[in-house]
Amino acid sequence: MTKPIDHTAAISGLTKVQFIALMAMLMSINAISIDIMLPGLQEIGASLGVIDENDRQYVISAYLIGMGCAQLFFGPLSDRFGRKAPLLGGLGLYGVCALAIVFVPTFSALLALRFVQGIGAAATRVVTVSIVRDVFGGRQMAEIMSLVMMVFMIVPVIAPSIGQLIMLFSEWHMIFVVITLFAAAVAASVALRLRETLAPAHRRAFTAKVIANGFRIVLTNRLALFYTLATSVLLGALFGFVNSAQQILVGVYGLGIWFPAVFAAFAGMMALASFTNSRLVQRFGMRALSHAALLGFALASFVWMSVSLMGPLSLPLFIVLHGAAMFQFGLIAANFNAMAMEPLGHVAGTASSVLGFTQTIGGALIGALIGQAFDGSVTPLAVGFFTVGVVALACVLIAEGGRLFKPHNPAG
Question: Where are the domains of the chain?
């Protein structure tokens, strides 16, 4: 009997498990870049003379804006020259900036390097999604992205604890040494193990006309555009929480060194939801799961907002209400991205860059607004979550012509 061909290995040179692990490592670059330093934000601000505690949030925002802007560049570049070279170039820039931050003299210089570091990290966001789209499509892509997101979500579970451990035995500069070493390990794995996944026949010229046409294809596709906008505003809620997490969990609830444990619990809920999605998406479909989760997100956020407007929330009640919303997010993200990318396989790199740019910049700006609204309570965060839930639901209704739960891809 002839042994069946391993589709994943034939294209990428990796088994399915190895492929998912490497894609998750690449996506984890961005989680590491944000979550590992959360326990050190206070010391970074004190060390570099930051007076307003809300200004510490710019360490995250500068990185996200750099990453968002550069995605417009890396997508078309990967459609022209393949996936590996731009990916390795981005990882190199990311690692060099992380190492340079160890020696940074001022907060302004740190923010500038974080912006450039985000530019390098953009390659990991764009090219990873493009590689997955090169290898898989439809519900299979949603399944793989769910598994990638599940592993990716494990990073926020452990990264703050690693950051806290570093802060206990060293100081904040060592956090960026660890980030540099992680980048080097991921780059070595890509260079030595990953095969080029973009076939020569599918490469596109790197000209202004071709790039503009690729952008036109993306922006004029109703499904791709509005699922991207829906993801953008939902990411704004997530970034808003990440921006203000240290202030809420340490400042409002006084968790101190236990901050990473509660933060990890929220990330764990999203990881569990992503795993659940990977098990159910082939059976029920992307739309059934993600549309139900979006309605659940809006409902949970509404209850959370209503209760918080009545007075201060206890820590257990905050964990339950915020955790309910975060669990729904884990059922939404991979499906929305897969549905946005599904009709754009022929321009996957450019599509991933436009989608990633919109999601990251939109999410970073909305997240900054929500984070900067922090007033010593969780009410601004709750209002932000409910608002983006309503806007995301409107975007999905436009994408689907006013009808939810209608399947587009057959099972199997």
Answer: 14-193+221-399
Let me know: does 245 contact 265? Beta carbons within 8 Å: no
- Which residues 6+ apart lie within 8 Å of 307 measured at CB? 313, 317, 321
268/276 Cα distance (integer angstroms): 12
DSSP 251: I
Within 10 angstroms of residue 407's Cβ, the number of other Cβ atoms is 12
Distance of CA 206 to the CA centre of its chain: 27
Residue 309 burial (C-beta neighbours within 10 Å; 0-12, 13-18, 19+): exposed
Is residue 9 pLDDT above 80, yes or no?
A: no
Span 333-345, mean pLDDT?
79
1.20.1250.20, 3.40.50.620, 3.20.20.70, 3.40.50.2030: which CATH number matches 14-193+221-399?
Answer: 1.20.1250.20
CB 285 within 8 A of CB 407: yes
CA 155 and chain centroid, separation = 11
| Contact (Cβ atoms closer than 8 angstroms) between residue 145 and residue 90 | no
Q: Are the C-beta atoms of 42 and 246 separated by less than 8 Å?
A: yes
Check whether 359 has a pLDDT greater than 90. no
In sequence order, the 6+-apart residues with CB closer than 8 A to the CB of 248 are 241, 374, 378, 381
- Please tell me whether residue 288 adopts helix, strand or coil conformation: helix
Distance spanning both ends of the chain, measured CA to CA: 24
Q: Token pair of 83, please?
A: 């996936």
14 close to 7: Cβ distance less than 8 angstroms: no
At residue 307 the predicted structure's pLDDT band, cuts being 50, 70 and 90, is very high
Task: Decide if 67 contacts 122 (C-beta within 8 A).
Answer: yes
Q: Which amino acid is at 109?
A: A
Q: What pLDDT is attached to residue 304?
A: 93
Full-model pTM: 0.74
Sign of the dihedral defined by the CA atoms of residues 37, 41, 47, 50, in that order: positive
Q: What is the pLDDT of residues 177-232, one digit of tens each?
A: 999 999 999 999 999 988 888 878 778 777 777 677 777 877 888 888 899 999 99
Please tell me the predicted confidence (pLDDT) of residue 2: 43
